[in-house]
Amino acid sequence: MTQNNLYKGFEVELFTGSLNSHIGVSAEIEKKFPDFVKEPDNRNVEYITTPEKDYNFLYEKLINPRKKLRRWLNKKELTIIPSSTLCFKHDIQFQRSDIQNVYHQFIQDSYGISIATSSVHINIGIDDLDKLFAAIRLIRSEAALYLSISASSPFLNNKITENHSQRWMQFPKTPQKVPFFVNHNSYIDWIEKNIANKNMQNIRHFWSSIRPNGPQRPLILDRLELRICDFVHDINLLLGITAMLELRILNLFENMNTLDPLTTSIFSIDELSEICDKNEINAAKDSLNSELIHWRDGKKVICREWIQNLLSDLSPTAEKFNMQHLLKPIYVVLEEGNQSMKWINQYKKGFSIEQIMKFSIDDMIKNEEDSV
Predict the structure, then answer these.
(1) What is the pLDDT of residue 1?
(2) How far is the C-alpha of 285 from the C-alpha of 329, rounded, in Å?
């Protein structure tokens, strides 16, 4: 039923370096590869995929740029580092990728190195504005679940942190308070107000777990952008997270009266905003083991159980769209733990952060070779 699926696209950020240090070559990468762009800190680079409905095409769109980049990096004796934070011992000074860029200067002055993280942004095409904002409300209410599955940043500066997603703990969410948008007009008004009062420098300077996206923000919107996920090096898992997200949105469209938090939560929209922020912080700390507050009724629930319940709820929709197989990697994560949990266990067994990263880099390479 591919014709009834939604369009999906990705923005994938990567760290480059050696097996024990972060080395920025983003300016060279941008010149060499047209599908890669610089991030403000030189140690970061990003590639963007064009929208596709079919998951087989998505796999190719995600793996091929990485394979091309790796071949080029190999010649320089460099690699892709799968952590979502600067995990090796590093220079804590910001490393500008573009000295002339005024917006990058603002980011450096305002946030410094806290912005130097890597993640994957998942875009889902929705061109009906009422459906788009309902989807944004529901997925924001459950964003902590997606972070917990993807968590891959327990290390920072060659030390273990107390967080499964150190990236989301340190990332400067901006503006700090984001309301639940009741419709498109409320979003436009809020954006214009925050740019006018300098809470935001420009339309791009809206860094939250989720946001509307489109060709001419805030006026012309055509997709939901989930920004909370850590970098996921296993493409099959990333597609599993994407399938769970798409199925939840399709599920919402079939049940608008019972799944939109605006009409079915016991909480006000201001309370919902606070609950979601707390859930995201708890998920960043303990991921699958975190205790969260359910948006519908305020009951406390362990994140792993919430995901299991959600997958059960999505089962009929997954069957209808023939997408059950795509969700298998998520069940594996629920059983075996996410990337951060595995790394923390390896660290507790006495492996160094360099050794742990080497294991994961080898896994990445194997995945890329298996995809040939």
Answers:
(1) 54
(2) 22
